[in-house]
Design brief:
With 246 residues, the protein is an alpha/beta fold. Helices cover 52% and strands 13% of the residues. The strands form 2 sheets. The protein has a 5-stranded mixed sheet with strand order 3-4-5-6-7. Strands 1-2 form a two-stranded parallel sheet. The longest helix has 18 residues.
Length: 246
């Protein structure tokens, strides 16, 4: 997320402080971002603090931040399962903004869900502008964050499994592993480009490439007999349910 935030023009001259319980992780983050390793107190003194820890560590991290943070500090949380009320209870003196990004924000091609309920409109607009270099920014009511966590946060992992299956199928059909991986990646990138327009419909794209008695329809019939569509949808629902339980 730090790499994505530094893609924007607003990053010029910014002072980046990286704090982590694992010294090697802090050093790597600082080296990549051109920032410096600092303590939690130094990080909390920044105007924008990105809280990126596991849910089990969020309470301890906020306790470390709280003494040095103030009313002008904005904490951008990416912690799964911790809603705004819970975050605010742990650090009542700061402004809390809950987000859910995915890994592609590193390249400016990701998705960031943002809970904007109750935010000052000026702060909201500034925040959305700051997040814009990360990719698609979607404002959502916080009640939908379990679904956003499943689709945006877990989605790359689920999609990676499908692309892995593409790769295996290509190898089983005679391609080398390298050839199949390159082609699977190209198919993923090309399909994403075809669906990038706001009016693009996955069902319509599927129909466009399904010639009568052709190769695509033969493959689709296998997927439909295996209820792949239903299983993928169920996987998103299961991930959303788990996100709500955290």
């Amino acid at each position: 997320m730090l790499a994505g935030l530094l893609l924007g023009a607003h990053a010029d001259g910014i002072d980046v402080v990286v704090a982590d319980a694992v010294p090697a992780a802090a050093a790597a983050g600082a080296a990549e971002s051109g920032g410096r390793v600092g303590s939690a107190a130094e990080a909390a003194a920044c105007a924008l603090v990105v809280l990126a820890v596991k849910p089990k560590d969020a309470g301890d991290a906020l306790a470390l931040l709280a003494p040095s943070a103030g009313p002008d500090t904005t904490v951008l949380s990416v912690v799964a399962g911790w809603d705004t009320a819970r975050l605010a209870a742990a650090a009542p003196q700061v402004r809390i903004v809950r987000t859910m990004p995915n890994l592609a924000v590193r390249f400016g091609a990701g998705l960031v869900a943002v809970a904007v309920e109750g935010l000052d409109p000026i702060l909201r607009d500034r925040l959305v502008a700051r997040l814009d270099p990360l990719g698609e920014v979607v404002a959502l009511p916080e009640s939908l964050f379990p679904a956003a966590t499943a689709l945006a946060g877990s989605g790359p992992g689920l999609l990676a499994l499908i692309i892995e299956a593409f790769e295996d199928g290509g190898v089983a059909s005679g391609l080398t592993r390298e050839q199949s991986r390159a082609m699977a990646r190209a198919v993923l990138a090309g399909t994403a480009a075809l669906l990038a327009d706001d009016d693009a419909d996955p069902a319509q794209l599927r129909q466009q490439v399904s010639s009568p008695a052709g190769t695509t329809i033969a493959g689709l019939m296998v997927l439909e007999r295996g209820s792949v569509r239903a299983h993928v949808a169920d996987a998103i629902v299961a991930a959303a349910r788990r996100a709500a339980e955290l």
